[in-house]
Design goal:
By secondary structure, the chain is mainly beta. It has two domains: about 140 residues, Immunoglobulin-like (Sandwich); about 100 residues, Immunoglobulins (Immunoglobulin-like), CATH 2.60.40. It has one helix and 21 strands. Strands 1, 3, 5, 9, 11, 12 and 13 form a seven-stranded mixed β-sheet that branches. The chain has a four-stranded antiparallel β-sheet with strand order 2-4-10-8, with no helix packed on it. Strands 18-15-14-21 form a four-stranded mixed β-sheet, with no helix packed on it. Strand 16 and strand 17 form a beta hairpin. About 25% of the residues are buried. The N terminus and C terminus are likely disordered.
Length: about 300
């Protein structure tokens, strides 16, 4: 789910006329602090919910047509409106998510997809189907995974704080916008090269424990959902532990940050076997040397290996 917030803030003379020569009473300072804190603690909830999942996957054949449904429900007690539209979608290991216009990505399938309706008006507790159709081009050169998003964006709701000063109107207002991104994923049969690489790796100390951080990138043509595990060996080749590193969906040309908690191991040198298991016939392996005595404090990733 993607939540986008648009803020409109009014603070009547809380900062005086000249912000550089700011002079406030203690009560005014506390009020400013409370107002800013309110921006981050005020719950923003959408009444419209997606009932049948945020990822719809299809194994397709060029020249064929496929149909699907997105099921929405107004879980609130008042009517809600939403608009439906398309975007592309990508992300990286730094936590950035991108929603460019449809057709921007080289592997976008947005042009294959049509949907109806584009606007909905849902009474309280009502459900609504958004039907979509995928017409795969009759192009035998297509291979691998193609994807895009159908967005469901609820009509903005004005949220006002209950704070007033001297009988005036509330001094803070927010425009709340909630939107869901439903991934529409098409795999061309079993085609497409499956290939991933570890771009960056490092050991960090955090809360008295050692953690291995790995940036894994999909450099192939097929979407993968690899589950990372690590087998750790001492310098004598004896296995001393097995650790889990989580699982991420990786589209072609996207990356994710895997983190393996190694606990409170002694600060020695180790050898590690890293397995990325896609839970099919494709398992990727890499061997790395780990030196826990040279672990870095928690911070940003630095490039360690490019293979």
């Amino acid at each position: 789910m993607k939540i986008k917030r648009k803020k409109e803030i009014k603070m009547e003379r809380l900062f005086g006329v000249d912000i550089i020569s700011l002079k406030l009473k203690i009560s005014e300072i506390l009020l400013v602090y409370f107002l800013f804190a309110l921006l981050f603690v005020m719950p923003l909830h959408g009444a419209i919910a997606v009932l049948n999942g945020l990822t719809h996957e299809f194994k397709v054949t060029p020249g064929q047509t496929y149909e699907g449904v997105i099921l929405l429900k107004n879980t609130g007690e008042k009517p809600e409106k939403a608009r439906i539209y398309q975007t592309d979608y990508s992300f990286n290991a730094q936590g950035q998510k991108f929603f460019p216009p449809p057709g921007s990505n080289s592997r976008s399938n947005s042009g294959w997809i049509s949907f109806y309706p584009s606007l909905i008006d849902l009474p309280p507790q009502a459900t609504q189907e958004v039907k979509f159709k995928i017409i795969v081009p009759d192009d035998l050169s297509l291979k691998g995974t193609y994807w895009s998003m159908i967005m469901v964006e609820q009509t903005p709701t004005l949220v006002q704080s209950a704070i007033a000063r001297g009988g005036k109107e509330p001094s803070l207002s927010l425009n709340q916008v909630v939107r869901y991104g439903i991934q529409i994923v098409t795999h061309i049969g079993e085609t497409g090269e499956r290939k991933i690489r570890i771009v960056n790796s490092r050991i960090v100390h955090q809360d008295g424990k050692s953690k291995l951080q790995l940036v894994v990138e999909n450099v192939g043509e097929r979407c993968l959902v690899p589950d990372l595990s690590l087998q750790l060996f001492n310098q004598q080749g004896e296995q001393i532990g097995q650790f889990a590193g989580g699982r991420w969906r990786l589209y072609p040309q996207t990356s994710a940050l895997y983190q393996v908690d190694l606990g409170t191991l002694p600060e020695n040198k180790y050898k590690a076997l890293i397995l990325l298991d896609n839970h099919d016939d494709h398992v990727f392996a890499a061997q790395v040397n780990l030196n826990l005595s040279s672990a870095e404090p928690n911070g940003s990733l630095s490039r360690r290996n490019g293979k």
